[in-house]
Known about the structure:
- The chain is an all-alpha fold.
- It has 19 helices and no strands.
- It has helices at 3-25, 33-43, 49-52, 54-60, 63-86, 91-95, 97-122, 135-147, 151-161, 167-191, 197-220, 223-243, 248-257, 266-279, 281-289, 299-327, 333-340, 347-357, 363-398.
- It is globular and about 70 Å long.
Amino acid sequence: MTTSEIFLVAMLIIFSVPYLVWRLGRTEYFAPLVVVQIIAGIVLGPGVLGTALPDYYMFVFNGPVIQSLNAIAQWAVMMFVWIAGIELDLRKAWVHRRESGITAGLALGVPLAFGAVAALALLPYPGWMGARGTSWQFVLGIGMSCAVTALPILILLMEKLQILRQPIGQRILRYASLDDIAIWGVLALILMDWERVGRQAGFLAVFAVASILFRRLMIRVPERDRWYAGLIWLAACGLGADWSGLHYMVGAFIAGAVMDADWFDQQQMDWLRHNVLLVIMPVFFLSTGLRTNWQVGGAAVFLVAAMLLVASVAGKLIGLRLAGRLLRWQPGEASLIGWLLQTKALIMIIFANVLLDKAIITNATFTALLIMAVASTMLTVPVASPKLQRMRELVLRSR
């Protein structure tokens, strides 16, 4: 078979297997399609398919095919993070800055601290920190991985629970939005290359000036042209960030963060996000799965994943409980919000991909983080749904 034919075989597998599992298995309650796609990526990687059918794995996922898939995956995830940056709305967070600041700080800070402690426990053992990583980068990277909330997936899950447009849903969005900015800020700090700090400072200075000019341009151009201008801006920022020593993902996020969502029709924005998830993000999930390899660490990878899951879940719940006491929330609110903010798939996977690209973590650590992200996301709806139902019943009784 030609390379083009093998590539299409890979694409057939990427789109058909997760969909059939999701639809025929009726996994929507605990595993939306996006989560099934992530799990399918892991199963199709070297850890499962590569072990069970090594010849078939090498035939389908050969060098040229993987190169093509990685190129599509890179652009897909850049677009996804860019859209997430555009949709950040910090104006409401500023109006409620005390409540939002306290909650977002504790929701991020406590699990970050728990994750950092778990990372410190791993430092003495070889095989977890990457070849080019330093201790502080490894500890901060693992800590932040435990603190991440995936805002786009959180939106999907809150739509499913029918609370996205309700007051509690809007509150949760404010908290997650603030944490989203902190996540990318910490990633930029981790990726700072002190040998190329002049180049990075130069990029940020040029970016600041270019952002002002770009914003003025976007206000003046017709709305139909703003999408094209935005994509050109995305590619330029990604290139500049990667050239300076920061990752192209940081460039993609800041490219979106300086743009206003009200420049675009909201329905078109929703349509674009939906179609990016539908059309090209499954390739990213497969590309991510091809990086998983728990053979490196054997059973230890699953033990580390369990330790990180405990640190993540416990840290988030404790942080939200502290916020609830300080702000005198209604009974049950802290627990519900804490579980909804457990959603990690996508953004944490993107975050971990960057750490792996920069050799701050190893393949074994990446696999453990991936397992933790999938597990925490799958726990969200089954745990949060009955809690939400109990809260609704309490409200009805109080009336």
